[in-house]
Amino acid sequence: MSTSNSTPLPKALGHIRVLDLSRVLAGPWCSQNLADLGADVIKIERPGSGDDTRAWGPPYAKDAVGRDTSEAAYYLSANRGKRSVTVDIASPEGQALVRELARHADVVLENFKVGQLKRYGLDYESLKAVKPDIVYCSITGFGQDGPYAHRAGYDFLIQGMGGLMSVTGERDELPGGGPQKVGVALTDLMTGMYATVAVLAALTHRDRTGEGQYIDMALLDTQVAMLANVGSNYLNSGKPPKRWGNAHPNIVPYQTFACADGHIIVAAGNDGQYQKFVEAGGRRELALDPRFATNPMRVKNRDTLVPLLAEMVRERRRDEWIAMLEAVGVPCGPINDVGEVFDNPQVRSRGIEIEVPHAAAGTVKLVRSPMKMSATPATSDKAPPMLGEHTDEVLSEMLGKDEAEIAALRGKGVV
Fold first, then answer.
1. For residue 159, what are the CA distances in angstroms to 27, 156, 166?
2. Does the annotation count 343 as an active-site position?
3. Which SUPFAM superfamilies does this entry report, sorted A to Z (predicted)?
4. Tell me: the pLDDT tens digits for 375-384?
5. Same domain, 318 and 366
6. In the chain, is it the N or the C terminus that has fewer CB atoms within a 10 Å radius of its CB?
């Protein structure tokens, strides 16, 4: 996106440099957001192997003749817009390089185990000594203190420990009932999102006061925080919420229904929408019945009402229901598979799927940032980097290393 005279629009974070020591998902999701907003994100990776997710395939990106490249689709999902530099941070020379790079950075992001980077002289206090106003964000499973601080934390475990799986899945008394994890690593992703917000807030504080700070992000903290109304329901009732499958604990009908040829979601958020729903299905008596006239009554009598609604919905095809309900303003929609998602006319119109140049694959398909901003648009036009693709460039540009110095570092396995 550019102005009418073809001058590129400014980048919101074009003045920010991020030294990203994180890998896998939560940290890279944060740094990808910052890169989309224009920050220069330098991804520090282990020589020879790099981010673990580079090998988390298949599927892999394919080259022009259909052969797999070394770039796993998982890795591609969280690393666009960055520059990759390989450094062995277990070596003293590698640690010195990272400290030099930190001197030129605004933000350091890491997700190592508690205390590990202190042994390398790459913890907050060590880097604050070389860059006093640094914003340093650590992401761990359980945070920097508490009895679980030194445990390894993984999204799946945290979904279970943090209560999400207790409210996800079909009701215990129904077929298929039991705890279920969410189909994407939601806790990792939300931790990355909260970390993004925290980093931006810390940068704003730094710009106002000159003071950097330390950010302690934990997957478990995030998971508990994002329980939202479910957590609030417990705190205000003392009763642990249960699983409701595709239904809603506080709204009826707000769930999936089987049609004659598939499934739909009906989200009747008020009494008027409920009335229009049953009238469209030819069951006006269900709107007049005092047991179902208001949402509190429908919640109370859900076990009586829902089978009647299910019988009604099963009489028509999915597309017929969607057309009828959209015509009368009842929120509804299909349950798409991912292929149908990317083929959806609204998704296509919004340009969410993009194709960008890639060193090994020629081009790769990515999902653009969902942040649409008029004055400082997010950009997603740089493919995730190949391992070490920018090592020479960054060491020369930022640290003034010449070819001979870089070659010597490479010969010793430091980069």
1. 17, 5, 9
2. no
3. CoA-transferase family III (CaiB/BaiF) (SSF89796)
4. 999 988 899 9
5. no
6. N
**pLDDT score recorded for residue 3:** 44
Does residue 370 sit in the same domain as residue 332? no
**20 pairs with which residues across the strands?**
43, 109
Find the domain containing 305 and state its range: 254-337
Residue spans of beta strands (DSSP E) within 129-198:
135-140
Residue with the two structure tokens 């890169």: 35
Q: What is the CATH number of the domain that holds 75?
A: 3.40.50.10540
Q: Please state, in angstroms and rounded to a whole number, the distance separating the CA atoms of residues 274 and 356.
A: 45
Type of residue found at 373: M
Amino acid 387: pLDDT: 96
Please give the average per-residue pLDDT across 240-253, as a whole number.
Answer: 90
Residues 162 and 65 in one domain: yes
Quick one: angle between helices 391-399 and 92-103, nearest 10?
60
Residues 215 and 361 in one domain: yes
Do both 149 and 277 map to the same domain? no
**Cβ neighbours of residue 332 under 8 Å, at least 6 residues apart?**
264, 265, 266, 267, 321, 322, 325, 326
Q: Are residues 180 and 278 in the same domain?
A: no
- Distance between terminal CA atoms of the chain? 36
User: Which member of 155, 188, 381, 392 is catalytic?
Assistant: 188
- How far is Cα 339 from Cα 347, in angstroms, rounded to an integer? 11
Other CB atoms within a 10 A radius of the CB of residue 291 amount to 12
